[in-house]
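Task card 7
Instruction: Convert sequence to structure tokens.
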Amino acid sequence: MPVLMVSVSGIRGIVGNGLDPEIIIKYAAAYSDLFGKGIIVVGRDSRITGKMISNILTGTLSAKGNDLIDIGICPTPTVLFNVKKHKAIGGIMISASHNPNEWNALKLINGDGEFMTPEQNKELMKLIDKTKNNYEKWDSIGKIFYAEDGITNHTNSVLSIPYLKQDELRKRNFKVVLDCVNGAGYRVMPHLLNELGCEVIKVNCEEDGIFPRLPEPIPENLTATMKRVKDENADLGIVVDPDVDRLVLITDKGEPFGEENTITSVVDFILSKQKGNVVVNLSTTRSIDDVAAKYNADVFRSPVGEANVVKLMKETQAVIGGEGSGGVIYPHSVFGRDALTGTVLFLQYLLESKISMSELKNTLPQYFIKKGKIELSGIDGNKVLDKLKSRYSSEKINTSDGLRIDFDDHWVHFRLSNTEPILRYICEANGEAKAKRLLNKYYEEIRNLI
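Output:
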């Protein structure tokens, strides 16, 4: 059965079994009809199907009369940055993020240099099957330009973040093991770290576009990299996913720093420099609330999804935001998750802490997150959620994306998958055994409601 996943950020599928040329053409044409004629920035990660998809995509958009700026292999946030720099009407990143080699995707960006809003996505969906073949005549097609400075523009902007003390970082000379999983990070991360005076030990920074391991940067996929950090006696390890929007860190002891600790650390750093609100999604750690309380800052929680976080950040004029999966959103350079921005902010935070990475981890709030899912084949998931909402109506609840319930000693978030008949649930508590016990409790509770 063909695999094609449609979400607020675009479409994702298996090449040759769902994400096929006719699908790419259909979405590209609808995207052009939605935003009109003008410049569109296109980039891709390193996977081997990227060039093929780029050819189809840029050819279709050119036929619709759009001019294209192709910046080649680059991070997703680099496309976001260059959309604003070139005052383009939008941009498209070709990347399936942390999915394996056989997957690819179109990530759709609006003229603000951000992922399309939920409202724009709804308008696009209306056009998908209604798009007319209104292609231009031979003498009116759009031009395709190839830009070599896309990554440089983005990197220079990140290095201009005001709290960054490059001279001090160069003197500190952090020893870093860098794992780019042979993704787009190989084109930017070594240079960025060198600019900050780091001694860089490169792992999986080849140009062949083949991921040597499962590309999602979770601990079970990073055992070799974690060992390398310890063997090299490095100060830390830095891991990015194939399109360089997620940042995952490894301590000097070769242990996971924790994805939730990445955003917690950066929030702590930014709030220590400037006052303001914080936005994270409903599935992000309570550590954010603890850190924000130190600075009398307010925390707002959005539905899951980068576009939703950005939307709420704008509404609340937040100074920092992100997601617990290692996604840092600090809108100096781009209004989206950016591992380049996350890297420089964290290195400055580590520098100013004057302690080791593992010691820094121990200074952060200590919580444990556990996740589960239940298949709902033939079952109305919304009715299950309604029963849970009724049961916990007297508690502190948030229903903007499924159901999140906050208790004094833990929280739990139930939400339905957008693409599968699955109910996901995530629980966080101040002890690992406790988090496991609570997760099992909620599993049994859901089973009894089905």
